[in-house]
DNA sequence: TGCGTATTTTCGAAATTTCGAATATACTGT
DNA sequence: ACAGTATATTCGAAATTTCGAAAATACGCA
């Protein structure tokens, strides 16, 4: 398989590799929302949210449309929702093992912060 | 949706957010391989490969089994192959736009290296 | 033009990721 | 116990990501 394709996949995964950005993608599941609506619904800090939007835009996970004062975001391709749904099933399929994995990850992070 | 689930998804995406790790996952598509086989097939540096294996193991993307001298890796759940295949279709569905996006990303990286 | 609202950009610090070099560990055969 | 092979870990430097604070930009309206 081509190197280019692998790099592309890595870029997409990287774009999705943050809980906030996943929340954004999921919020857009049912259609476009303005930046402000996303920020409000998800309880984000304004500047930080905008930076996450930039990441998603730069990898073309979302597209934006300007309407007067505001910017509306939507998913470029709903296939990414499919991916999230697959992972949801994956999460529950291995629930108990997943939970202990998540606990471990949290503990590692707690340690690194000291 | 739960915060925990979102964090989990982000962890998985993060685990896959590197071309080398994607190559590893794809190499395991048809069954387990030893660390050495992976390194040879993919032309990786030994220590670096081992570090990537650690990432994949820590997020339970792969599981390992020890057999004598060697360690055999396999995918925990083939559902992840599905995810990669979805992205492959996504790549080709938007091919021309994707290629120019990848070119832009390469240029940004080239700039940052100066 | 000037004001208010919506959004993005820039800056700097902290945390995380990535890599190669060197070292360590584990297992096998002698 | 020793040597050899397979794999993992540690270390330090460079690159990247993340965040909040502050500033900048864009648009609509008086």
Structure in words:
2 copies of one chain form a homodimer. Chain A is an alpha+beta fold and 114 residues long. The first copy, chain A, folds into 2 domains: 1-76, Arc Repressor Mutant, subunit A (Orthogonal Bundle); 78-114. Chain A is 68% helix and 12% strand. Chain A is built from 6 helices and 3 strands, in the order ααβααββαα. Chain A has helices at residues 3-16, 19-27, 35-42, 46-58, 79-93, 95-112, and strands spanning 33-34, 62-67, 70-75. A 3-stranded antiparallel sheet of chain A has the order 1-3-2. In chain A, strand 2 (62-67) and strand 3 form a beta hairpin. The longest helix of chain A is centred in the C-terminal third of the chain and has 18 residues, at 95-112. Chain A is globular, with a radius of gyration of 16 Å. Chain A binds a DNA duplex (30 and 30 nucleotides) through residues 14, 18, 34-36, 39, 45-55, 66, 68-71, 112-113.
Which key terms come to mind for this protein?
homodimer, 114 residues, alpha+beta, Arc Repressor Mutant, subunit A, 2 domains, three-stranded antiparallel β-sheet, 3 strands, 68% helix, 12% strand, globular, DNA-binding
Overall geometry of chain A: globular
Strand content of chain A: 5-15%
CATH superfamily heading of the largest domain in chain A? Winged helix-like DNA-binding domain superfamily/Winged helix DNA-binding domain
Main sheet specs of chain A: 3 strands, antiparallel
- Radius of gyration of chain A equals 16 Å
- Gap between N and C termini of chain A: 43 Å
Count of DSSP strands of chain A: 3
Under the CATH scheme, the architecture of the largest domain in chain A is: Orthogonal Bundle
């Amino acid at each position: 398989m081509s190197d280019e394709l692998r790099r592309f996949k890595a870029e997409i995964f990287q774009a999705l590799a943050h809980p906030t950005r996943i929340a954004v993608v999921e919020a857009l599941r049912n259609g476009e929302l303005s930046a402000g609506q996303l920020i409000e619904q998800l309880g984000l800090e304004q500047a930080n949210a905008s930076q996450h939007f930039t990441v998603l835009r730069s990898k073309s996970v979302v597209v934006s449309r300007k309407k007067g004062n505001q910017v509306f975001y939507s998913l470029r391709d709903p296939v990414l929702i499919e991916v999230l749904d697959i992972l949801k099933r994956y999460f529950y399929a291995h629930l108990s093992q997943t939970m202990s994995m998540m606990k471990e990850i949290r503990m590692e992070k707690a340690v690194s912060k000291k």
